[in-house]
Protein: Deoxynucleotidyltransferase terminal-interacting protein 1
Amino acid sequence: MIKHRQIHRRGRRSHMTVSYTDPQVSMDLLRAVLQPSFNNDIMAVFKKYQKFFEKAAENVKENVGEDIQTDQLIKEACRNVLENAKQLFPEGEVKRAGPDVTIKRSRPGDDDCNQRGSPLLKKRKTRPSAAPASSDRPLTFSSQVKPKSDPIKREGPKWDPSRLNDSSTFVLGSRANKALGMGGTRGRIYIKHADLFKYAADAKDKQWLAERHHMRATGGKMAYLLIEEDIQDLSRSDEYKDCPDVKMDEMKPFTVPLWMVEKMQKAMEAQRDSDL
Structure:
């Protein structure tokens, strides 16, 4: 178990109590300890489905008829699996300070150690192990369980594949993320707005996009396309319309050829009808 300790400083500011109780630090320490075990378990799962990835990659290579690196396609698909798995753990607000977090400062006269010139710190009284938490603790965190997040809705006109045609305009997910003021957190838009349709560009799509300078050549890096209309609707919502960080001129929308639109329509239909 990770225990937090108080450190009482002596000297002119001996009345201050410094507490090292950042919950994120504690959880990340635990994560670091468990990470090797998680990695082993995750690799075991991927090996279980490896034959499916290999078969799909070979099929892509045969159909595209280009110099396709199947190992990169498989790695890209695996990264996409991990990226989408984040939806199982929707983000919530973490309070670092506020009503649920109190920082206690000792007042002069409360302890012997607060007296100027005192050579010794007052010995802390031992509390019974079963005693309930008292106001002596410098930090307290709310233990309330957060309500379960609403299910992702993939229905209505926005999830009708017929809305996509050769005149539809699209934006890179990274640009939409930046346009809505979330550029500091890569991929934040996919988590915050999981109900948005996003299309994972394959090798042929990325080659077409790179040749027309819509994006840089990314190799095995994932690239998502979003519908410009959806992002414009978000920018006009109450959540973003008065946000100073929103910069819609960052989007740089573009159209795509019909063969790519048809792939997007199939992807939208598959995502809409998939189990959430």
